[in-house]
Amino acid sequence: MKVTASALSLNVADPSASAEFAKSHLGFVEEMAAEGFVSLKRADVGFNLVFLKTGLETFKPARIAGDAGQGLLIALVVDGIDGEYERLQAEGVPIVTPIETEPWGERYFQMSDPNGVIIQLVEWM
């Protein structure tokens, strides 16, 4: 098997709101969109970030078509975590876990998008 691309698809009530958040604050760009669907990319991220409107009939299997976010967290490793923290705070992004450093060297913080999807930025110290 050869994998040629990958995506993380999340069910959310308002795909456009999550997409705008990721574009405005995290530098993603829209690759494609349709009714109830937005696919975003970044050249330096190894997957597309896809937001699907909750309840789409095309989502399969239907038994897992609920809201995204239960126990899910999107983690992006970055350089300059303190600068990113300050930038996102200044932009008014909802920070749900303030910046902290774990004993094993992981420095991170977490934010929430308009649909409650948790995004963590992390830098290894």
Report the CATH architecture.
Roll
SSE run: EHEEEEHEEE
- Counting DSSP H or I runs of 4 or more residues, the number of helices is 2
CATH topology: 2,3-Dihydroxybiphenyl 1,2-Dioxygenase, domain 1
The low-pLDDT segments are none
Distance N to C terminus? 35 Å
Question: Order of strands in the sheet with the most strands?
Answer: 1-4-3-2
State the shape: globular
Provide the residue-averaged pLDDT.
Answer: 91
Strand percentage: 35-45%
Report on the biggest sheet: 4 strands, mixed
Which class in CATH terms? Alpha Beta
Structural class determined from secondary elements: alpha/beta
CATH superfamily: 2,3-Dihydroxybiphenyl 1,2-Dioxygenase, domain 1
How many beta-strand runs?
Answer: 8
